Structures are given as C-alpha cells and as structure tokens.
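Lab notebook, bench 4. Continuing the backlog of folding jobs that were queued last week. Each job is logged with the same field layout so the records can be merged later without manual cleanup. Today's entry covers HTH araC/xylS-type domain-containing protein, a 280-residue chain. Filled in by technician R.K.

JOB TYPE: sequence-to-structure
TARGET: HTH araC/xylS-type domain-containing protein
LENGTH: 280
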Amino acid sequence: MHKPTARFLLPVPEQPIPLYLDSAGFNEFQESISRPDGYPCYHWLQTVAGAGRIRMESNQYILPPQHGLLLLPGVPHRYEAVDTEWSTYYLTFDGAMVNEIANTIGLRFSSIYHWPEDSSFRTLLASVVENCSKNQDITGLDHSMDVYRFLIELKKHGKVDNQPSLHSLKERLLPLLQYLDSEYRDPDVEMSDMAHVMQLSSRQLNTLFRKAFGYTPYQYLISLRLLKAKQFLIMDRNLTVANISSMVGFREPSHFISTFRKSEGMTPEKFRAMHGSPGL
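JOB STATUS: finished
OUTPUT FIELD FOLLOWS
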C-alpha cells in the first residue's frame, strides 16, 4: 500500500547554484497532464504502480513500473493513466549549470529509462521526497545534492532502448579492469591481450569500453599507469623518475615524462615538488 499524495514546491535559491530542486512529489492517483509548450525545467516522471501513456513529439510510449521519463525543458508532451490507477513519483530541477552537467554525463535527450527491479534506483525518488518533507533547506544546497545524486544514479542504472546500463557495462568489464590493475607494470600489454581477456575482438572491446567509460581500453591503461606513477612520486621520494617510469610500464623515461606532461601540464619532478612530503 502506497503512501498518500505528497507534493513539494521548493523556493528558487537567491544565490545561483549549479543545480537546484524545483519540485518533487508522489502522486497516488496521477492526473492527466497536457503541456503544449513543455515544462520550463528538466522534468522526471516515474511509475510506481499501474501504467501511463506518454505522448511526446508525435510519439507514444507506455510507462509501466520500473520505467521513468526524463523530459528536457520546453519539450511538448502529455500523459494520462492507462489503468484506472496510476501512481508516480516526479521531480523537476534546474540550475546555473544544469545543461552542462546533464550533457557531460550523457543525458542529452528526452528519453524513457528503465532499470532492474533490484536496483537501488528504485527507491531513490522516495528518499528525495522524504528529504523534502523533513528538510527546510532555504539555500537549496541540500536538495542540490539530491538532484546530483539522482542524475548520477540515473546514468549508472538507467537503460534506454534496451541498451545496457553503465552499471552493467562496468560489471561486464570487471575482469579486464582487474587484469589491467595487476598487469599495468608490463610494457608488453597490448590491445590483443585485453581483447583475449574479454574473449572479444579488439573492435568489440573498444566499442564496449567506450560505452562504459568514454575512452578506449588503451587510454584507460595509460591513465592507470599515470595514476600509479603519481602515487609513487608522492609516497616514495627515494625513487627516481626513471625508476618509476619502468615500474608503471613505460619502456623509456623520456616517453613517460612526455606523456605525464601532456596529461598533467607539468613534469613528474614538478608534480612531486608541488605535493610536498607524504602526509602534508
């Protein structure tokens, strides 16, 4: 049995912040809505029970449980219950950097999302609505964290058009990540070795890895080597740059230095000097 309808309209923060929560709530009996001019903020609608019919940009969709709709500002839409009872959670949000943040994490289009029944995303909106009922946040900062958490969790668990979620992609790639974490020191690790670990072709692995992380497995390996190098530079000052270079999988110190400079904007020596002694 679901809790009764609860709706919260939040004040717009006086000082600009990257994200703010405009409204959130739970509708035990979702009413029909028609917005020919769209909604002025980002809008999320999630089915809890029953099902809704969504009409958006001349397309029609059904929104059953474990499904939600992300609408970008200004997108014309309408929705109504398919069954006699349709229960939903919703939230609307905006902010000084909302477009940049949404675009950066790949939420660029109005889309229908779905997620596994056992996903933690299933109860996220309930916690957001509960926070609204308990927290009189005049600054908007606490609710801003709720919005950011929602966006990250949607990116992590949400699937669009039967594409795998980021979470499932990363789980699938876990054997490769573990392999690279143990073999990054070996300068002979090649793309063919990585593909063999995953039992995929190099092209298939590249495609899968890009979907999960936005870059290739080899780029990930270089980033991992540089991360390990930075840890050595800071934690063991008796190690020379040449020592560290070979320890993290570079054949030549000159290649290591040029790669480090390109990534960090400074030489390994300058990076070490800038970070002082361990513990400081």
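OBSERVATION: The chain has eleven helices and ten strands.
SIGNED: R.K.
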